[in-house]
């Protein structure tokens, strides 16, 4: 049975998801991980995953990912049912 998750999309990545602030996904795995959710996001919205995860599967340094308000950087972390994922890009300036 798929697990449903909500993903909040930061403004710089909204062009990948038709301008939406959040999207709902059904992650097919029985015990889904954060990586599974990011792959499902990329399957629905091609190209977005590469903006968050590098070639080795690690979360990029300038991206923070929150799962139910807790920072999570491990793509192998299990997602609870009904997880809410928030993607945040780092700000810089001087």
Describe the protein:
The chain is an alpha+beta fold and 94 residues long. The protein is 12% helix and 27% strand. It has 1 helix and 5 strands; from the N terminus they run E-E-H-E-E-E. Strands 2-1-5-3-4 form a 5-stranded mixed sheet, with helices on one face. A hairpin with a 2-residue loop joins strand 3 and strand 4. The protein is globular, with a radius of gyration of 12 Å. The N and C termini lie far apart (48 Å). The model has no long low-confidence stretch (mean pLDDT 90).
Briefly summarize what is shown:
This protein has 94 residues and is of the alpha+beta class. The protein has 1 helix and 5 strands; from the N terminus they run ββαβββ.
Largest beta sheet: strand ordering? 2-1-5-3-4
Class by alpha and beta content = alpha+beta
Strand content: 25-35%
Count of runs of 4 or more consecutive helical residues: 1
Shape: globular
User: What is the total tally of β strands?
Assistant: 5
Question: Averaged pLDDT, please?
Answer: 90
Rg calc: 12 Å
The amount of helix comes to 10-25%
Order of helices and strands: EEHEEE
Main pleated-sheet profile: 5 strands, mixed
Distance between the termini: 48 Å
List segments where confidence is low: pLDDT < 50 over at least 5 consecutive residues: none
């Amino acid at each position: 049975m798929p697990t449903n998750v909500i993903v909040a999309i930061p403004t710089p990545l909204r062009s990948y998801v038709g301008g939406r602030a959040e999207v709902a996904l059904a992650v097919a795995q029985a015990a889904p991980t954060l990586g599974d959710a990011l792959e499902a996001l990329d399957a629905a919205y091609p190209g977005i995953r590469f903006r968050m995860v590098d070639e080795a599967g690690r979360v990029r340094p300038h991206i923070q990912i929150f799962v139910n308000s807790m920072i999570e950087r491990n793509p192998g972390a299990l997602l609870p049912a009904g997880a809410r994922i928030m993607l945040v890009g780092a700000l810089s300036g001087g």
